[in-house]
Amino acid sequence: MTPINDTTSTNNTKDNTMTTKFHGVIPPVVTPLTPNGDLDVASYEKLINRLIGQGVDGLFVLGSTSEVAFFDDEMRGRVLSEAKRIIDGRVPLLAGVIDTETLRVIRHIGQAEEIGVDAVVATAPFYAITGPTEIENHFRALHEATDLPLFVYDIPVCVHVKVPVDLMMKLGREGVIAGCKDSSADDVSFRRLALANRAAGSPLSLFTGHEVVVDGAFMSGTDGVVPGLANVDATSYVAMYKAYREGDWETVRIEQDKAAELMEIAFAPQGVVGPAAGVGAFKTAMQLLGIIETNTMSVPLPTLTGDNVERVAEVLRRVGQLA
């Protein structure tokens, strides 16, 4: 997520000063684990350096792909601190500050500030039933608690509520939020958000969390993509974003098709659901490719073994990633 430091930046902080515009390919970084569930620092370093070497524009740590929901506070701090050390200022670092309710999220923001991240990413509150009023109060409280750019992580499959387009635009126009990572899988809503954002002068930086229809998000005018699949191979997304910026739509289509074919790894496992299938497939592919040491998942998620590993390997062979 390379900062744009010229006058094309339009995001506002609470005092209406200019701030960094985030854009490009920003993978949500997988957290490699040792067989006993500890952070595998050597694999983490190898992964982050590989992603930066492939040309990504930033890194999002402690999101869903990072398995943040399964980490205690100490583990969150270790993962974020190691990411900050390894990145060493080469690209911007976004930190997920995901938790059930506002005061818990504010504590995570404080930790992220101490470590020195460039932006924070928060979902709507969850567990307690909420509506637009509670969601608005939540993000306003988070904004008041930090000077960091604040991004909405819109992921209703996990938090069971969709952040309304009108509320997102209201918060964006007032400088409460800097942007949105849309993982709603609701392409109609995303197009409505993109159109409303453009009509308002683009106060928000918009990102899609899709892997397989990023081309459609680019046609909507998204600022970038946050693809978990990039942990396996970021090159198609980097090439796609470059082609999008150059108006080369045929290359966008070709690179999207490549990424969609590789994404079949997430549909290959059988007998597992949710993160165990998706993130589990990413980790298994990364282990097969020698990017990380193990495909261990966080408790209580099952780690892919046996036939499921072979199913992932078969996809990798089919797309030319594995001999």
TrEMBL record:
Molecular functions (GO terms): N-acetylneuraminate lyase activity
Any one Gene Ontology cellular component term annotated for this protein: cytosol
Gene3D superfamilies listed in its UniProt record: Aldolase class I
Superkingdom of source: Bacteria
BP term (GO), one: N-acetylneuraminate catabolic process
Family matches, as SMART domains: DHDPS
PANTHER family: N-ACETYLNEURAMINATE LYASE (PTHR42849)
Membership in a protein family: Belongs to the DapA family.
Name of protein: Dihydrodipicolinate synthase family protein
